[in-house]
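Supplementary Methods, section 5.1.

A reviewer requested that the exact input to the structure prediction be made available. We therefore reproduce it here, unchanged from the version used in the analyses.
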Amino acid sequence: MKKLLALMLALCLVFAALAGAVSRAPSAQEIPAVLEETPEDTPAPSVALEIPAEPEEAAAPSGLDYGAIYALHAPEETVLTLGGTQASWALYFYMLYSQAENVADFFESMSSYYGTELSWADEYAEGVSYAEMTLRSTEETLTMLCAIRDFAQANQVSLPEEVRSQMEEDIQSDMMTLCGEGATEEDFAAYLAERYMTPELYRWINETNLLYRQGYIQLYGETGELYDEDLAMDWLENGGYLSAGHILLMSVDPETGEALDEEAKAQKRDQAQAIAEELQAIQDPEELLARFKELKEEFCEDTGKTAYPDGYTFTPGTMVAEFEDMVNALGDYQVSDPVESSYGYHVIMRLPLSADAVIQYASDGQTPMTARSMASNEEYAAQLQAYYDSHPFTYAEGFAPVDLLDYVAG
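The structure derived from this sequence is encoded token-by-token as follows.
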């Protein structure tokens, strides 16, 4: 599903090239005190060019004569068709411009930081120059966007009026951010024109993003709540997921990370033992869950307990070894004796898997991702990928991709 997963990169490039700073930033979640590492929920870009932070002085990279390239065709000329969706030269060129600027930034950073001078003719991968890679990435990005629109049309996906209204509000907000308070439509059009973009294309790309989202909502609901529970459970089991809650009494100072003295650690250990014994004496699962919740609220010092109030649902290798090993040793609703890790003393209760348990949060930092939402997102991506694979694009008669090496300036 690599092609469809790269969609988010395409949209990020579009807006990054426009604003450099327009974003609806996510708020960070607290990192739980049992996570071995942060789960990776962000797709890898199709062009993986790591660009260091910009230094105070940077040498300008070799550029492209964008004006000459843009003048090759009329903006409204159709250059590509996928199913019933057509892409104009203006859209194609903007995608090319976005991809090329990303590569040019990479050239600049390599020169500034490492003294490595790269050119468009240099080899990006075996037998593929940076110029050719840029064209391939442009083609992939553009055809993905066209496939999403065509898929939406074929499946009668449309944007509700309230979604369109919100889109217009967001565009107005972007206009103020990019052009300043009091900016007019003419100011915005002028800003976009400097970046080979028009207000119409800006809306088209916004619409495409929203159609992608709306198609998912129509099939699975806002957060995947319409996805079949049995299929979600199969997804969890096939992924080797485990689920558990814990009450953590920390043996390190959360502010400094330094270990507590032996007397303080002994008090925490004794308290954890008392909690474990109380919970182990409760036989009824409902009563046990209720009491566990009360004790967790009172004593648990894990910073992740707010984001994950019902415990953690995780795959092997993502939690500290002592925590994971104990979860594997327990049966559903069994409570452990205190388990010591580098964080402190854990009283752990294994939980049955649930299709609606929070596994992680989406990239906005706010939207909880459950088994239903994660499995349904994978299924949706697979549907789109199948559509993409079965609807090859065609270039318009007489159109040929640009040889960027013919337009290297200076």
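Residues 25 and 86 are 32 Å apart (CA to CA). These observations are discussed further in the main text.
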